[in-house]
Amino acid sequence: MKADHRNTPIFQRIKQFSADSPLSFHVPGHKNGTVFPHGPYEYFEEILKLDVTELPGLDDLHAPNDSIAEAEGLASDFFRSDHTFFLVGGSTAGNLAMILAVCSAGDKVIVQRNSHKSIINGLELSGARPVFVSPKYDKEADRYTNPSMSALREAIRKHSDAKAVVLTYPDYFGKTYPIKEMIDLAHEFHLPVLVDEAHGVHFSLGEPFPLSALHLGADVVVQSAHKMAPAMTMASFLHIKSTLIKKERIAHFLQMIQSSSPSYPLMASLDIARSYLATLDSAQITSILHSTKNVRDLLQTANYGEVLVADDPLKITFHVKQGLSAKEVAGLLEERKIYPELVTHNQILFIHGLKPLKQVEALKKTIKSIEEQLKNRPNHATIEIAKLFPQPIQELALSYQEMNTLPYRHVSFTEGIGHIAAEAVTPYPPGIPLILKGEMITAAHIEIIEQLREQGVRIQQREKGIRIFSK
Ligand SMILES: Cc1ncc(COP(=O)(O)O)c(C=O)c1O
């Protein structure tokens, strides 16, 4: 029987539960919102009614057999997976679980170097031995994108004893690449392919969006529903479609990584997001695309930069003119209460929602109004990042096991050159480590970090300088 994607079983069940005015002698301590400070309650009231726990009839994320199982089943039907897991800890939880499910201490795993820190953290937690494949520097996009097929082939040939290939698709800016060829190559060597598709949940809509890696043969695909679909922050999916990986292993690690009290509003929002995607009709999609084109065209009229070509129509990347700082341009937008998603040293990323934008006039005015202010800005040097990954394939200088036994000390960035980093240095967003824990620190790393900091890019660190291993 054809699934009815208007259904939202988790949401319907908790809505019914709350409508019965239940008396709570259980957690959470806000007791359906009745124990909550008065002022904030006005804002939280409706959501607190839905913030329940594993009561009879409400199912259990870690052993689902009722409304959560039904909701995961509907998601699996829409995304065409063998099984879909609901995640309440973001794609972060999914990325950790998929890596832990396939590799143990000392196992080799082939990984795209410019991966999100959750992938890198998964490698460290598992104690695996990563073989990193460097991304290409894409001159047109003016940033690093995906690894080349030839580098991946070389890595797989040299390390065919690896346990998996881990790729990111699309990148933060919505750029895709011929991932199918890479998946097919890995499968020739019986290697499962795990894909961090945090930015691609809407790819399952199909044309005119790019195809999801899940439909191109990947074994496990993780998607942040909260990034590109209407789900609450942290709500994400892990899809499995594989003869190489067992669903039970993923489930095992997910119940270790995720809370034993997963949030029902988050799970219900996943249910709603799937229903939203699955019931979008072609007229709605056409008007969304029309709206993305309007925003693109508007930005293109600005004399302080240009819009780059994108594979994902919802991602709009504005490349600021040479000499200007993207941070400064974004700052002027933010002063006018327009908040982009991400600002690098030279690009500003705008994410369009899955609904036509209403505030087009306001955006138009703002884009024009900041032209004047940008006229007399001092010139910023261009940051030359193309030298960041000189080797197509690289391994860490130390194994994670060795790193666990070594003492470390804290030094200035410059003193760190020529030493092995004992912590990652990560510009955030996008959350891709510029230096990895266990990587040799080079002068090029430090030069780029200093320039990024000068231009206001946020580096995620608790202390200035860097920790290095003392050998
Ligand atoms: C490529 C990529 N993977 C994974 C994540 C982590 O996703 P989440 O915030 O859902 O944990 C992010 C977050 O920005 C990301 O950009």
CATH superfamily of the largest domain: Type I PLP-dependent aspartate aminotransferase-like (Major domain)
How many structural domains?
A: 3
> Number of DSSP helices?
16
Assigned CATH class of the largest domain: Alpha Beta
**Secondary-structure-derived class:** alpha+beta
Secondary-structure map:
Blueprint (H helix, E strand, L loop, with lengths): L8 H11 L18 H13 L16 H13 L3 E5 L2 H13 L5 E5 L4 H10 L2 E5 L1 E4 L4 E5 L1 H10 L6 E4 L10 H10 L4 E4 L23 E4 L1 H4 L7 E5 L6 H11 L6 H15 L3 H19 L4 E3 L7 E6 L5 H10 L6 E2 L3 E5 L8 H15 L18 E3 L4 H6 L2 E4 L1 H4 L9 E2 L15 H12 L4 E2 L5 E4 L2
The protein binds pyridoxal-5'-phosphate.
Pyridoxal-5'-phosphate binds next to α4.
How would you concisely characterize the structure shown here?
This protein is of the alpha+beta class. It is built from 16 helices and 18 strands. Pyridoxal-5'-phosphate is lined by residues 90-92, 95, 116, 118, 168, 172, 196, 198, 224, 236, 430-431.
Structure description:
The termini are far apart. The chain has helices spanning 9-19, 38-50, 67-79, 90-102, 117-126, 149-158, 179-188, 225-228, 247-257, 264-278, 282-300, 326-335, 360-374, 400-405, 413-416, 443-454; strands at 83-87, 108-112, 129-133, 135-138, 143-147, 165-168, 193-196, 220-223, 236-240, 305-307, 315-320, 342-343, 347-351, 393-395, 408-411, 426-427, 459-460, 466-469. The chain is built from 16 helices and 18 strands. Strands 1-9-8-7-6-2-3-14 form an eight-stranded mixed beta sheet, with helices on both faces. The chain folds into three domains: 9-278, Aspartate Aminotransferase, domain 2, CATH 3.40.640; 282-374, Aspartate Aminotransferase, domain 1, CATH 3.90.1150; 396-469, Molybdopterin biosynthesis moea protein, domain 2 (Alpha-Beta Complex). It is of the alpha+beta class and 471 residues long. Pyridoxal-5'-phosphate binds next to α4. Pyridoxal-5'-phosphate is lined by residues 90-92, 95, 116, 118, 168, 172, 196, 198, 224, 236, 430-431.
